[in-house]
Amino acid sequence: MNLAYLLERIARTDPLRPAIFNGPHCVATYGQWAARSAAWAQWFQAQGLVPGERVALFMRNHPRYLELMLGAWWAGLVVVPINAKLHLKEMQWIIDNAQARWAFVSADVVPDRSALSGLQGVSDVAHAPPWEEPTPAQAGAFLHPITPRAGDDTAWLFYTSGTTGRPKGVMITHRNLRTMGMGYFNDVDTIAPGDAIAYAAPMSHGAGVYAIPHLMAGARHVVPLSGGLDAAELFTLGQQVGPLSLFAAPTIVKRLVDHAEAAQVAPARCAAAFKTIVYGGAPMYAADIQRALRIMGPRFVQIFGQGESPMVGTALSRAQLQDSAHPRYAARLASVGFAQTSVRIRVTDAHGVDMPLGEVGEVLIQGDSVMAGYWRNPEATAAAIREGWLWTGDMGALDDDGLLTLKDRSKDMIISGGSNIYPREVEEVLLQAPGVAEVAVVGAPDAEWGEVVVAFCVPQPGQNLQTEALDAYCLEHIARFKRPKRYAVVDALPKNNYGKVLKTELRKRV
Ligand code: AMP
Fold first, then answer.
1. 280 Cα: distance to centroid of ligand 1 (angstroms)
2. For 4-396, which CATH superfamily applies?
3. CA–centroid distance, residue 109 to ligand 1 (Å)
4. In the CATH hierarchy, which fold is given to the domain comprising 413-509?
5. Can you list the alpha helix ranges (DSSP code H) found in 297-398?
6. pLDDT tens digits for 457-502?
């Protein structure tokens, strides 16, 4: 069933309910949101876009994100959310791979729209829409009809970085997102109609996906004026339209807690500003969550998931995070919690045989939240989904109550500030920089970012590598956030007998 029916449902029963906020200002009621999304759908169809075709959103957080996302679904189209921090070349690669027809961009992200090719059209998201604003009377009355979609049809084509250095399109269906949305109420939190979600992290990722449960409940959707994370702004916004719920990577949680501590915000004021802070996407250290609970009070819930099963894997509830008298409290804090309602979790060896309790293996997920597969990539799909189970690439152990603790990532992925960075992608770029013979990239622990990227470079004979030149080269070819924060120029890389670089050795050095 098309997710757009969720919007139509509330727009009919409660058209005047405040829906979308730009900072503290309401910019759409549910009736207006539905009328605008229906108008977008009609316009997409007038441009010749047919169900199943792709519309890319390469934009910063913006209230129109929600109208466009639902508008695309309303017309039966597939949304391709692209992280606004990506390089234009990376964006172009995704457009080509997805064969997107139309793109909506923020002007500062794509200063020259003619630089993008292969699209039928590119629209600046800040420009006035190409249709007339529906009057309040129209909003909630006649709406252009929703194009029916099956549960297995793709709604969200999310590009994840691949270990091969090329991103893969994860096909997330209408059923996947509905399952995630319904599960939120049982595994994460309750949502009352007056509650508000704030989009403090990029809407192209998990934060945007959480629009679904808040749409189901008819809650308020708040896009901060800064478009993202400014801790002081969020505290103020929470007092104005909150209390807010939000999804945050551990780095963002840390900034909020630092702000609360530095500005001496009392727990009661934290409670007035924030209802629930859902954290996940990267490891949260036990000491950090204990400090967060101490300073901001019982408003945290942890989730573990991945692009291939968005936001749905395990959860550690508010009550479990509070229950410090529990005999296994320390183990719980160090874990990612228990399987969410709609999935089963196993930990197996490389052949899919269950590991004994407490022993580390690969984490597998099965359930209706798991992707349909990778876009036009049957080999990668067959490797990731075997006999109905998603192989997450995460290593972990289950204990006898079903608590999952992640130990390591099998793929050497670096998570910096909540964003995934695959070393190979950075290595491939640096290997093309003038004077570089060999390179190996690893993550180094970092108090602020979780991890930072460190590149070990071996110069070609007779060459002298300069950090500034390497950095400039990276800026030209990959997203800013992926480029190394530190370089080490070395004579040789440590290797094993097969000639493979020993990354474990390099990690010890950093
Ligand atoms: P993404 O596909 O971008 O959502 O990244 C998913 C990956 O982030 C997972 O496969 C894990 O390696 C990591 N991750 C997600 N949630 C958690 C969590 N709560 N704790 C530790 N790592 C996590």
1. 7
2. ANL, N-terminal domain (3.40.50.12780)
3. 26
4. GMP Synthetase; Chain A, domain 3 (3.30.300)
5. 318-322, 329-333, 378-384
6. 999 999 999 999 999 999 999 999 999 999 999 999 997 654 567 8
